[in-house]
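Appendix B. Extra example for self-study. Work through it before the problem class; the solution is given directly after the inputs so you can check yourself.
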Amino acid sequence: MKAAIITIGDEILIGQIVDTNSAFLAKALDRIGVEVSEMLSISDDKKHILDTFAQLQNKVDVVIVTGGLGPTKDDVTKKTFCEYFNDELVVNPEVLAHVTQLIEGFYKRPISQLNKDQALVPSTCTVLQNKMGTAPGMWMKKEDTVYISLPGVPYEMKYLVEEEIIPKIVREYKRPYIIHKTILTYGQGESLVAERIEHWENNLPEFIKLAYLPNPGRVRLRLTARGTDKEELEKAIESNVQSLDAIIHDIIVGYEENETIETVIGKLLSKENKTISTAESCTGGRIASLLSAVPGSSSYFKGSVVSYATEAKVNVLGVPQNLIDQFTVVSAEVASAMALSVKDLMKTDYALATTGNAGPSKGDSDAEIGTVFIALATPNGVIVEEFNFGQPREKVIDRASVKSLEILQKEILKIVQ
Amino acid sequence: MKAAIITIGDEILIGQIVDTNSAFLAKALDRIGVEVSEMLSISDDKKHILDTFAQLQNKVDVVIVTGGLGPTKDDVTKKTFCEYFNDELVVNPEVLAHVTQLIEGFYKRPISQLNKDQALVPSTCTVLQNKMGTAPGMWMKKEDTVYISLPGVPYEMKYLVEEEIIPKIVREYKRPYIIHKTILTYGQGESLVAERIEHWENNLPEFIKLAYLPNPGRVRLRLTARGTDKEELEKAIESNVQSLDAIIHDIIVGYEENETIETVIGKLLSKENKTISTAESCTGGRIASLLSAVPGSSSYFKGSVVSYATEAKVNVLGVPQNLIDQFTVVSAEVASAMALSVKDLMKTDYALATTGNAGPSKGDSDAEIGTVFIALATPNGVIVEEFNFGQPREKVIDRASVKSLEILQKEILKIVQ
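Solution. Structure tokens for the complete assembly:
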């Protein structure tokens, strides 16, 4: 079963807002086995919408349109539906009662003609009552394709999708099973991962697709199985994930869809009852910010010293001035001293430290731009590594933060195993 | 002049990621007077891409395709370009040299066949060198339509758009003059701002459009003037911005397109030769991370103590334990003490402190979830405010960080004026 998603509105086409409605819809449809074959954003223009409808007619089973339902004159979705279905607008008494109740009863305002017009719908449509707002959803069928119109306001759209659209599709359509499995890997780039698993990938059965979702420092692999026999799909995914794990066990850190290295580290530290702190120079608090964004992190993340200025390294962390004079602030020696100091100061089991030069210009050091030293103090000592993360500044901060977490995760794994 | 934007990749169609590349591209094109008539997301499927190309042929001047250029098997864009243009892939020596330098010289790894294949491009294309990664951009023309292929990795895509695509379009196409002026406001919501400027907005000339770009805690107003007489446009924008400033002077913080409150603060602090530090509990280093992300911030941002655990507040910042016992960690008193301590510790002119309960569960305090105290120590004393930022956790951290910066900015303004 196939669907297309159309978003209507100029604010998306000039880049003023990012379309998040389509991703929400796609995820909801994917979960019930509906394949989204395309997403489109087009302007509030009747002819453009009609052309798009005609293109999709009988090519997909469902077309979902969001936006273009507000009370102002540049919202044209309803008129376009009437033209496409050769229908006319009539007042829907149920919607009118709801809109009147909302405006007069809840907002305590006199109802205007613009408000009342929200109750106009094509005479042959199935109305989807929108308890969250004034614009109703509409469901109309032409030959093999259903056209659904939804308001663009995210929480109204979400309400109608969850309460009306998804249950109605589940009742009325037969769909295949779709099973996804995500594998989160860290520390190797997309092409290196692809090379390592090439043979495995070539041997995947036809009904399982593999996708690579690369981010700086990490690659998410997604397996998707489609078919009619749910049990068979689950077994096939399971056995293929096992054989994948045997090949790249060293870089796999998690299997959950929304897992990140921060949540993986959080689970490991909680399980082992260990704590972490950070001393950050070039990452400027980013690592602390990533760690503390995880709910429940207060049980293992104790705190951080962002020693951005050299004085802060000396005065707050107690890094010896002569160490800085001898080796410069961007050095393995200073990174180690920072990690050991903050571990002491915050009384934690582990401590990460970063010092480097993120650019664009050189700071209190002659180190090449992009150079970063990462130190990790553990219960057994301290390890330091040197990196060059290139440019721009944003990328250096990003990659240094992610790499630090990766080093930490690998070390904690050693005590878990 | 018209453009279409196509994003390729299944991860968007199943809702796993939100497409932010299209909004970036749309904004960049809009700025130079190119109208985006549609955006599409389609799957990594050759036939689907070819059909879409054919539909857009001669209907738009430029088709920009992002994604589908990685080294792995699920990327098909290059092969599709070859088929559409009846061309074949050849090695581009310049790209090969760049990829080799990047892999062998920078990452210190032997180059693989997959890496080398990144240098394969259609023989007749204009190559756009990608200094930020291995996949080059491509520019090919068929009849009246140019097809441009860009990598999907956001910072690589952005680099090519800013350094190659936009300048090339500006050189090769005639477009109307478009002048934008952005006004950054802080502290009032979209509808309140809209009410205050309603009369002014209704009196804008026909050729000037106003857009609201709301974000938590701030609203960006964008004026866009379109026409053929550049001087007239500039004069009209200038006089309308002046009359706007007269109405909402109290909430305007800046006028530059890419300005954020962090960069505004950076300029003010640099100008006045003042310094800042932070002591963060519930914001977990986010404020430090925002401040230090600004290039050149090392001249005014000295550092931060992220005192996530109560012990860190006592041991590192020296907040008296009896103050915590008496008022709890989430209190105006503790926030003030944190701000004054870190100001002292980091020897700065200003210091921000946050303490609160971001949820989802209560921590070392009985304070209601969402409660945050923000303190700002200045050369003249300390001010504290209490907020409740609701839920979820992510929103509390976000809004507390933005509100802290807003309080800081307002205070620094006092000394500047």
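Self-check: The first strand of chain B starts at residue 2 and ends at 8. If your reasoning did not lead you there, revisit section 3.
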